[in-house]
């Protein structure tokens, strides 16, 4: 073993270096040993020598003032070749190996040398402890033993030193590791604090979101619940954390009310299949057994090995919107039913793509075949030229203002060229499924029959009224004649009777004129004779007339400044008289009727105010419509046809004026019209 290490010079040198002894300072411990060696062996020189690659270096050099010599001159490098043995050279002058050695031939004139190899515990001879003398001699047995012992001492010291160094290094490393550990601990603490903070922040955020959120472990046990979740179920956090996603407390059901099998629950699907489910709708119950519709999303939670360790479920309470949707569906169905029962044609156009969809009925109405592809323009093309521009303008306005509108117009059917009248509505709406899509849509109803009926009625009224007027003129003339004769004969009774006949004939004439007006309005035949006149003069005539005719009521005319109008005086008078006559007709005898005129924003506003029965709110929007009459207890016994106000409205609107009423039931009415004042 020693032989093998000895041969391995490289390893021996490595071993020597491992002690880190070369070129270190002198140390008293080692010097003590050389001093003892020199004393015991009675020699002037004692050395602790380490054999390096090219030199021998002395850790201690008693009696010799040299720190190192070349290895080639070294006695010790010979000594270590037999590491177990003490090497003695009695007289170097006679030893072949050393006789030419300058240390022998010159200073320090070595004659005697005894060296004990310094053999470490691994069997490496690192150098030797040697004694030197300038005279030839040998060591006694005791001296040899002592030198051997001292050599062991050197080795012990060396080992101790190396162990110490190693210990020191280990200690160093330990200290370093310790401080690193402390650092790691510090940063762990920081990470922990940050984690706690971010967890708290996350919980605050989760508590703020409008969706309910639960987190479960791999078995579906709820490990986290946000505020909204607890609100929805009205279950507190403590209890919630004892439940699973399929606990009976939730009463999970399908939308039709049947129990939801646990494996169909979105969270269970996430746990079992790793599936992400979106917009799953289910029915649950809160703690008080109220049913709640939920829309739920669920995602699995996976660890780094892709194992499912839990799931997150988020859900919204859609109970309200669910019912709303149901209502909408119902409404849509009733709308469809209404459309089909009213035989309406329907169409819609995607405003982005300009795609046009027309129902079969719509195509049929416009005279197209059912399988024919038609466009919006095709439909517009069939509208009678007289009305086309107006229809387009109304449709565009309705689209721009996002308001629905309605209008009537004639069309010429595409294939059979027949003329029909339609009533059409237009409206714009958002696609409920995709609010980014806007549609423009409409319905079309065939009102040809109604139009023809109206026309026939109007023709008939016109004709009848016209025919009635002729005999009435004759009756009026005869009445007049008889009245004059009676006056001449001083026949008071006949004068009186003829006066009554005349009043009735005038009434009848008024009615017939009204019917004629309606007929003419329908045909657009009413003519306006525009001329400048003063409202004050109009009031004067009306005041004189009512003073003669009306004795049941007090009619008060407010004084009026000169107010000039460019209008048909006769027609405006007709309107004023109509208002006054209605006031008389629909208010109790003895009450007052006030007639006034004020100026508002360049318009003359004429008002007729009575203290009569008033008009119910619900009827007011229709009061100016043709043939409309209020139906109420108070109206019983009040005769009329419901055309007076209609004619008034037509007359005023043809003058670019406005007409209206302020009234409430039982509180009297104030009818008014306003017309632009002539400005010079
Ligand atoms: P008519 O008086 O012939 O019925 P009108 O067109 O003049 O027709 O009036 C329509 C309806 O409006 C009347 O039937 C009545 O119900 C209501 N009306 C008109 N004027 C008044 C009024 N001053 N006070 C209460 N109701 C009125």
Could you please describe the fold and organization of this structure?
The protein has 18 helices and 23 strands. The protein is α+β, with helices and mostly antiparallel strands and 680 residues long. It folds into five domains: 2-139, 2-Layer Sandwich (Beta-Lactamase), CATH 3.30.450; 164-323, Beta-Lactamase; 345-446, Beta-Lactamase (2-Layer Sandwich); 451-523, Helix Hairpins (Orthogonal Bundle); 531-676, Histidine kinase-like ATPase, C-terminal domain (Heat Shock Protein 90, 2-Layer Sandwich), CATH 3.30.565.10. It has a six-stranded antiparallel beta sheet. Mean pLDDT is 90; it is low at 1-6. Bound molecules: adenosine-5'-diphosphate (ADP). Residues 582-583, 586, 610, 612-615, 623, 628-630, 635, 640-646, 669 line the site of adenosine-5'-diphosphate (ADP).
């Amino acid at each position: 073993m020693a032989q093998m290490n000895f041969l391995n010079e490289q390893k021996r040198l490595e071993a020597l270096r491992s002690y880190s002894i070369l070129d270190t300072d002198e140390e008293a411990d080692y010097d003590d040993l050389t001093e003892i060696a020199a004393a015991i062996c009675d020699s002037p020189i004692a050395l602790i020598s380490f054999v390096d690659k090219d030199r021998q270096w002395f850790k201690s050099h008693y009696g010799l003032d040299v720190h190192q010599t070349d290895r080639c001159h070294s006695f010790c490098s010979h000594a270590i070749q037999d590491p177990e043995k003490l090497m003695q050279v009695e007289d170097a002058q006679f030893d072949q190996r050393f006789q030419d050695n300058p240390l022998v031939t010159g200073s320090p004139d070595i004659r005697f040398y005894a060296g004990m190899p310094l053999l470490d515990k691994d069997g490496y001879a690192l150098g030797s402890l040697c004694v030197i003398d300038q005279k030839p001699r040998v060591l006694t047995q005791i001296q040899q033993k002592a030198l051997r012992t001292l050599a062991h001492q050197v080795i012990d010291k060396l080992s101790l030193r190396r162990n110490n160094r190693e210990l020191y290094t280990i200690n160093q490393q330990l200290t370093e590791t310790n401080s690193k550990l402390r650092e790691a601990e510090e940063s762990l603490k920081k990470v922990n604090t940050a984690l706690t903070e971010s967890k708290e922040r996350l919980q605050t955020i989760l508590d703020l979101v409008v969706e309910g959120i639960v987190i479960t472990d791999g078995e579906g046990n709820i490990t986290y619940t946000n505020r909204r979740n607890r609100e929805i179920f009205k279950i507190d956090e403590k209890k919630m954390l004892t439940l699973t996603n399929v606990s009976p407390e939730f009463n999970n059901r399908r939308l039709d009310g049947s129990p939801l099998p646990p494996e169909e629950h979105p969270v269970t699907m996430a746990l079992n299949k790793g599936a992400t489910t979106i917009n799953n709708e289910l029915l649950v119950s809160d703690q008080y057994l109220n049913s709640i519709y939920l829309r739920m999303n669920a995602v699995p939670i996976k660890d780094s090995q892709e194992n499912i360790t839990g799931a997150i479920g988020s859900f919204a309470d859609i109970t309200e919107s669910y019912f709303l949707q149901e209502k909408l569906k119902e409404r849509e169905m009733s709308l469809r039913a209404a459309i089909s029962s009213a035989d309406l044609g329907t169409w819609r156009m995607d405003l982005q793509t300009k795609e046009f969809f027309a129902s079969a009925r719509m195509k049929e109405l416009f005279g197209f075949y059912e399988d024919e592809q038609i466009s919006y323009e095709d439909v517009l093309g069939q509208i009678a030229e007289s009305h086309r521009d107006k229809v387009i303008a109304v449709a565009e306005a309705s689209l721009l203002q996002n308001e629905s509108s309605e209008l009537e117009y004639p069309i010429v059917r595409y294939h059979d060229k027949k003329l029909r009248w339609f009533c059409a509505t237009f409206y714009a709406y958002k696609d409920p499924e995709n609010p980014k899509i806007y549609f423009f849509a409409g319905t079309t109803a065939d009102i040809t029959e109604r139009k023809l009926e109206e026309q026939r009625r109007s023709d008939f009224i016109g004709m009848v009224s016209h025919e009635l007027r002729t005999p009435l003129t004759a009756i009026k003339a005869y009445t007049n004649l008889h009245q004059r004769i009676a006056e001449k004969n001083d026949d008071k009774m006949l004068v009186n009777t003829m006066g009554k006949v005349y009043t009735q004939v005038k009434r009848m004439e008024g009615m017939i004129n009204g019917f004629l007006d309606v007929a003419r309005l329908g045909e657009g035949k009413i003519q306006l004779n525009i001329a400048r006149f003063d409202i004050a003069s109009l009031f004067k005539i009306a005041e004189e007339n009512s003073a003669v005719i009306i004795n049941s009521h007090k009619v008060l005319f407010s004084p009026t400044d000169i107010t000039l109008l460019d209008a048909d005086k006769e027609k405006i008078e007709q309107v004023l008289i109509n208002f006054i006559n209605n006031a008389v007709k629909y208010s109790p005898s003895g009450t007052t009727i006030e007639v006034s005129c004020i100026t508002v924003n360049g318009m003359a506003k004429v008002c007729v105010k009575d203290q009569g029965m008033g008009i119910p709110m619900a009827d007011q929007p229709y009061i100016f419509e043709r043939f409309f009459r209020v139906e109420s207890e108070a109206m019983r016994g009040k005769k009329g046809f419901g055309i007076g106000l209609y004619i008034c409205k037509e007359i005023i609107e043809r003058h670019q004026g406005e007409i209206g009423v302020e009234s409430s039931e039982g509180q009297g009415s104030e009818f008014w019209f306003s017309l632009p004042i002539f400005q010079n």
